[in-house]
Amino acid sequence: MRPHRLLAAMLTAILLSSAIKAAEVLVEAEAFADFGGWVLDPQFMDQMGSPYLLAHGLGKPVANAKTQVDFPEAGAYHVWVRAKDWVPSHHPGRFKVLVDGQELAETFGANGQDWSWQKAGPVEIKGKKVALELKDLTGFDGRCDAIYFAANKDAVPPDKPDEAMASWRRKLLGLPETPGEAGQFDLVVVGGGVAGTCAAVSAARLGLRVALVQERPVLGGNGSVEIGIGPWAGVPTPRVDEITSKCGGNQPYANEKNLRIFFNMHACAVQKVGTRIEAVIATNTSTGQQLRFAAPLFVDATGDGWIGYWAGADFRRGRESYREFNESLAPNEADQRTHGNTVTFRTTLAKEPVTFPEVPWAIEVSKVYAQMANIPKKQRDPPHFWEYGQGLDVLAEAEAIP
Ligand SMILES: Cc1cc2nc3c(=O)[nH]c(=O)nc-3n(C[C@H](O)[C@H](O)[C@H](O)COP(=O)(O)OP(=O)(O)OC[C@H]3O[C@@H](n4cnc5c(N)ncnc54)[C@H](O)[C@@H]3O)c2cc1C
Ligand SMILES: [Ca+2]
Q1: Which of 27, 196, 217, 356 lies most in the core, judged by the most C-beta atoms within 10 Å?
Q2: Residue 201, ligand 1, Cβ within 6 A
Q3: Radius of gyration from C-alpha coordinates of the chain
Q4: Model-wide pTM > 0.90
Q5: Do residues 178 and 270 lie in contact, with contact meaning Cβ atoms separated by under 8 Å?
Q6: Could you tell me if the CB of 266 is within 6 A of ligand 1?
Q7: pLDDT tens digits, residue range 164-179?
């Protein structure tokens, strides 16, 4: 063999071996083909970095989530699972991972940490098609973000939910760094609650080409079938009712020729020229695919002012001092407090006594509910919900407000 051919062959061998060494596979839990009894939760992707699967079984372990994944090579891989131990004192959200039917020895959601990668394995991957399963052990809200397999034993997945982690995910998932173009619109409405839906439908009927970007699979926001707090004005609102009455399904407004609804798309950033918003970037909550929505006009109907915030608009939150607007009921000093979240629950009367699982980590309802004792009886709502989280940041700490 001539020297340069030998060199080329050696180089190829080195490159091949490093390619095999570097073999790595990222599986997003939200991309599982069959969620079983787990549910997709994309609510906190801006805070913790990605949608995840949640095992919400009210104390009964939910059915396994299952999928099949293509591997580049058979061989030994080190496994990492990103999970959250949501009550470190009790580890209620524990789960297992099965690789080709074999349960890994490690238990996840029990390492005493917030969102973190937990190392497991190594595992021997025998073929190029690998079956994965998430097995819930408790029915108490186990959370799995992703599973990472690396042939290189020194590979460590990024822990901080920042742009570097997002870019690492895109690379491993084979997604482009630059978002695809969603199309050109006259108006982009972000958020498909009552406000966004009414704005989008009205604008489309007035002749604008409208994109409605909604992170959930249905419209309606707080008033949707998912939450159930419909709009109520105390006076008839037939035009709003006509629009919101269609919010339940996933194919509403098929006949509005100027309106395109993009479901399961979570807006996550804006692009600006000077002080003007040029486009909104949104991420698909199952595939991670990103789209760019360009328009001369945008409506921020996210309910929390996210688009304005990302664009750098002035904002304020919390309560101002009574001195600012001369309001007698406002506090002496300004603070960061906001309205908490409402926890709604439904009860039915059983015919005979029923057992209730032990939940030693739960907040005692009687204590919290007792806070309402100061409110005159007539003004109290019926006892089917209470509010929690007033002392917390309802955006940054939303996951701590179950
Ligand atoms: C407990 C409770 C009781 C209430 N009672 C009443 C009442 O009796 N009468 C009444 O009129 N009002 C009531 N309201 C208020 C009413 O629900 C809200 O004012 C109304 O829902 C606000 O509508 P919205 O469209 O602005 O926001 P939302 O309903 O919050 O909708 C925002 C939508 O935007 C989506 N979204 C958010 N961020 C993004 C993003 N980054 N990308 C894509 N989509 C995004 C959300 O998923 C949501 O679907 C109540 C609210 C609560 C919480
Ligand atoms: Ca994920």
Answers
A1: 196
A2: no
A3: 25
A4: no
A5: no
A6: yes
A7: 999 999 999 999 999 9
